[in-house]
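Sanity check. The docking grid for zinc ion depends on where the pocket ends up, so I'm generating a full predicted complex first rather than guessing from homology. Inputs follow.
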Amino acid sequence: MMQTEPTRLLAERELERYDLQAELHLESGLPSFELRRVAGKTVIAAPDAQEMLYGVYDFAERFCGWSFFEPGRDAFDAARVKSLPENGVLYPARKPLLKRRGLIQQCPFDDETPVIFDWMAKNKLNYLLAQMKFYDDLSPAYKQLARERGITIESGHHNFNYWIPGRKYNASHPEFFAEINGKRIESSDGKDTLFLSEQLCTTNPALRAEIVANMVRYCEEHPELHTISLIPNDGFGWCECSECSKFYDKEHKGEFYSLSEHVYKANAIYHDMVREVAARLQKVRPDIQLTFTAYVNYCSPSPDLRLTPNLAVHFAPYWRCINHTIDAPECPVNSHYAEDIRNWCRIKAGGEVNIYEYYMGVHFYLSLPMIHFHEMFHEMEWYARVGVDGIMTQFLLCHWTAYGMNYALMARAARGEEREAALETLFSERFGADAEEGKAFYRQLKKLMTDFNGCHIPYPYSLFSRTTAEQYQAIHASAKALATRKPEDRFRRELVIWTEYFIRFKKLFDEARAQTLTETELDAFLDWIHSFRDMRVFAHSRFDRYFSALRQSIRQGTEWFHFNIDWEDEYIRRQEKTIYHSKRK
Ligand SMILES: [Zn+2]
Ligand SMILES: [Zn+2]
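Predicted complex below; grid placement will be based on this.
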């Protein structure tokens, strides 16, 4: 929650920090800040301290030559300073398109956290979804930084294993954990969170009571929090005991588009638990909002579920197609996700629907290109139209050069900025006099994918099985040309590394598919990646993890697709035969 006074003081400090000549006026009734000129002076009028702070940053960026595109790397370009009229509205107040706009914290908080919070405020983002174990380590000082920037933090994400940790309950309450093949699982305590597939015996009344008690205690220990969540561990593995089995039909499988055709639907069993836990929590803590997720085999609402005022769903279009917009009727993947989103919005009864996006592909897309600039503006308008309340995306600072443009444009689109003007501003901020060359570079990258004339799910196989080495050579040449025009620009130098990576990965991919790749070559590739730890191109630990699967394939002489998960590889094979060939409009 926002603290008015510290936020107002911060707005005043930032005026000085960026050497801006402007007066701050509080003006109730405005839908957002407004920038005006009155008798030769700039006035930043705003309905509250939060909008006032946004107004300061907006004025700095739009009229005074500042760029806040990169966290911790504010840039000033005198050529972008605009001369201002004596009188008139410089930038009119307008209601933000989406109420919640945010990021999803994907790694522990660290000494780079302050620049992320700073960047969020400068880009008018007001929401941060953090995993509970990360929130445990967030210092009071950093919490204060978020608070004075108007950033609401939700402590949540996959968290069955946080509410009911194996180390505490394995021995005393084995009945709290899922029964699989007639045996209670022993919780590994979330040692590996990706597709952990360890769930709870969610129908057990004592388990539900224990979760509510743990939630109430957690909220007492963290009075600053207003939003917590109840979200299954990643993956599948729902309980098969006689009581839980009543909530699903093993013959009633999930769907191809949401990667759950190989498992039964878990909507009913999950939503029954959410409903009761939310109701019990509300009785003691009506001020707390409980969020839950819509994902894989539980991505659509159960028939009798309603989103009441203390409930919010985060809808995660996992492995969505990034060659179509989310609402494209011709997309055999996204059109189903769009239908789910509409269905969630239809059952709103005072509660909220937020979209949990992956504007960096997904975890294992590994800095490969996702150019979603125009599409995000279209998608935000569609979200607003169907009744979605918020948007947030997974992100990492260490791959900012690959996806920062998406993050910055998501923020502008969700706020309701006009598309062409927002793109013009960002390209002129980032590339100055070479804005046109910058646009051409990203158009070339985008064309790499749209030339498929079919769907593109963000995993490496989908990209490299349909592109040629020559295409990456041409893109790399463009990046080098862009860097030559301004050699001192660090971002452009990183684009050169980024595009050289495409060439190297493509070669590696082709050899791996031909089963001629050696471990020595794989090591050389990884060494090359890791020689750029000081750049914001790669999420290094993910490369080691991902390519351990390829190494295993080399050793065993098996065919390599992705991460060597059988059911996942099977979806890739089937997608290659089907949706890779669906027409784009
Ligand atoms: Zn059970
Ligand atoms: Zn598609």
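Relevant for the grid: Residues 433-581 form one domain.
Also worth noting: Residues 321, 323-324, 331, 333-334, 455 surround zinc ion (ligand 2) (CB under 6 Å).
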